[in-house]
Amino acid sequence: MSQQNAIFGLLAQTSLHAGTGQNSGIIDLPIQREGHNGWPCVFGSAVKGALRTCAEDRYGASNESINHVFGPDTDHAADHAGAIAVSDARLLLLPIRSLTSQFKWVTCPDALKRFKRDCQRLDLSMEFDVPELDERGEAQALVSETQKGGQLFLEEYCFNAKPVNLKPVIDSMARLMNRDDAAAELGKQLTIISNDDFTYLVQHATPVNAHIAIESETKTVRDGALWYEETLPPETLLYTTLSAAHSRKDRKEMPASAILKSVKDLFQAQNWLQLGGNETVGMGWCAVSILESGDQ
């Protein structure tokens, strides 16, 4: 085949800050977001850069296969393009504080439909029906049959929880989460709310932390050194799509199957990828799960 595809599930283990490089309003360091809906994301260039860094750390920056997969370094960028296409890491589940439980993994019909379309585009098996909500009355939330109905609080907002059969959705989401108890925990915590309610929460319920700088000699706060940084919380579930073509340098040396395998092999021993900034303070670590065509 001329193209090989996969989806990488990225389950945040620590807070994740993929920044925009500019401030917005009172937040000095906001996170990356999609332009049309304001949903958090990690741009494909950042994901691809993190994958290349991971490859260089494992194989060495001079390894020739890295040039086949990701393209040559900046000084030789005109020689040929890389052979791996990496999409933005899209949001699928956002953990939201709840007064009625530890937290809830929240999503919406549009996020599920988009994930399903991405799977179909890549010829990946992901069979589930996206449930629809009744938005004619009070705010509704669909939960698994293993959860209780009635009032459900997400942040300070009250929803009417309706237990329904979400097992096909749960089984599909669990495949993206690198943890043995994923299906059981999703059964307790998965919550589907309306597209508009989801959009509001992902725009206003992400953590914003204050940071300061300390004068080394006096051990006091440096004048003017206060800033606010937005993050995605631990347990956030993102996914990114990968499409591998034959090497643009030598297709016989590295066909599409070898290109994709070289990226997958990065996570054979350790299924971890660091995304975004602040690596030295432990931020951005994600557990990686890989789905390919033919996976069941």
Percent in strands: 25-35%
- Count of individual helical segments: 7
Which ranges are low-confidence, i.e. pLDDT below 50, for 5 or more consecutive residues? none
The biggest beta sheet, please? Answer: 12 strands, mixed
Number of domains: 1
* Distance separating the two termini: 20 Å
What Rg do the Cα atoms give?
A: 21 Å
Shape assignment:
globular
Averaging pLDDT over every residue, what do you get?
91
What's the number of extended β-strand segments? 14
Into which percent range does the helicity of residues fall? 10-25%
Oligomer: single chain
- Assign the structural class, choosing from mainly alpha, mainly beta, alpha/beta, alpha+beta, or little secondary structure: alpha+beta
Secondary-structure element order, N to C? EEHHEEEHEEEHHEHEEEHEE
Brief synopsis:
The protein contains seven helices and 14 strands. It has helices at 44-59, 64-70, 109-121, 167-174, 182-189, 195-204, 256-264, and strands spanning 3-12, 41-42, 84-86, 89-97, 103-107, 140-144, 150-154, 157-164, 190-192, 208-214, 221-230, 237-245, 272-274, 285-292.
What order do the helices and strands come in, and which of them pair?
Elements: E1 3-12, E2 41-42, H1 44-59, H2 64-70, E3 84-86, E4 89-97, E5 103-107, H3 109-121, E6 140-144, E7 150-154, E8 157-164, H4 167-174, H5 182-189, E9 190-192, H6 195-204, E10 208-214, E11 221-230, E12 237-245, H7 256-264, E13 272-274, E14 285-292
Parallel strand pairs: 5-9, 6-8
Antiparallel strand pairs: 1-12, 1-14, 2-4, 3-12, 4-5, 4-12, 6-9, 7-8, 10-11, 13-14
Helix pairs in contact: 4-5
